[in-house]
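Journal club prep, shared notes

We agreed each person brings one worked example of a sequence with its structure written out as tokens. Mine is Phospho-2-dehydro-3-deoxyheptonate aldolase. I'm keeping it raw so we can talk through how to read the token line rather than staring at a rendered picture. Sequence first:
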Amino acid sequence: MPPLPQPPIPSHSHPKTQAHFGLPLLHRYPVSQLDPGSWKSKKAQQLPEYPDPVELESVLKTLESFPPMVFAGEARNLEERLADAAVGKAFLLQGGDCAESFKEFGGTNIRDTFRVLLQMGIVLTFGAQLPVIKGLAWLSSSDCATFLVHPCLTRLLAYLPYVGRMAGQFAKPRSDPFEVKDGVKLPSYRGDNINSDDFDEKSRTPDPQRLIRAYLQSVGTLNLLRAFATGGYAAMQRVSQWNLDFVQHSEQGDRYTELAQRVDEALGFMAAAGLTTDHPIMNTIEFWTSHECLHLLYEQALTRQDSTTGLYYDCSAHMLWVGERTRQLDGAHVEFLRGISNPLGIKVSDKMDPKELVKLCEILNPRNKPGRLTIITRMGADNMRIKLPHLIRAVRQAGLIVTWVSDPMHGNTIKAPCGLKTRSFDSIRSELRAFFDVHDQEGSHPGGVHLEMTGQNVTECIGGSKTVTFDDLNSRYHTHCDPRLNASQSLELAFAIAERLRRKRMRSVGALHKG
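Then the structure, token by token:
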């Protein structure tokens, strides 16, 4: 496969080492340059069975000839940011569809989800770091203010890495390979890149041509995301105004008005200091993509060797994660992931044994590299308080460097009286509260949040300030897989997280002053 060309590495790049964290280099598992196809010698779960292997091979050859969607240098930059999150210097916001679909593909849907992520991001950023900005508000000289605010603002805006579950999140694992309706048994729907959700034999038969369509849709999505991120749509003043509009029309707006106004005041000060909407810091963001590493044939076809390091990167996304159903220590998915150099996530439920988690981390990150591994917990609030402390202690005792992130969605799926799957906003918020409480208790760092969400006004999760009820679910239930937070619920959750981050920040500041 052809080497991957690289853009210049930014001058501010500062790779972190184990010494930076005061933790040891691990040598329990060998570090080797794996063949990207070595996973084929292992047992693979959740892979579709294609009826025509010749057509499949032709499609894979075509994918191998296509350009990479992302660069290795971009993945390394994300790894740096995740390393910051591991020590409490950044907070990951990861969100997007449960499963992208061909039917809903369009600029409006992409824009609306991106917009909500921006709104959430500015709330989380200022909720956690606003005291830094206000500490400079007394400066009167514009030139002096610009000189001093610029580096602080750079650190402030670097606080929050945006990572979308977008531009590749198609394939979904299934607990049962078949689905039965009215006595008819057909293969389960596994995502639009594999088959269709229409219930007939032709639609449910895996079609390799869908892999090419998924690639092309991912390229189109990523192209639009890059344009939004760098073309002025992400201007902070615009995003702040969106948030002010939200709190004015929210039934619980009084709770969040103060924070929204403080954000607006801070932006006004920055503008007075010379950082107007024309400044790149104020109208651009870094944005990365991620998805579950599930369809290994597709992922291998998009793996490229970096020409600057000789390492392999899966260029279908900047970050990939291994799911609850495919994280077997001796399985094909773990084998594939240990051979690529992208930042990796591990989905962890209450079923995870602490010793197994340590072994999995050592296999996937034998050099104990900061930012390489993100552990994404999905347990439900009650299980979180019981199980998470043991995992944190085991990881700490082993000297492992990881970033802890909460997925409060998957542990809270229930069936509504109408038969639809849903999630309770209150349960989601409770799990996040438990996540922060446990990290406070253990002295570790809550590094981020991972959400299934959309910018559309859907009615898939119950609750929130606009009170979606069981009776409302059928009105706008559009998901192809699991229920998602709508735009209002997502932003309300961001304000709640921001309040928690701000309290954590103020406790840290108070402790420093006492010291």
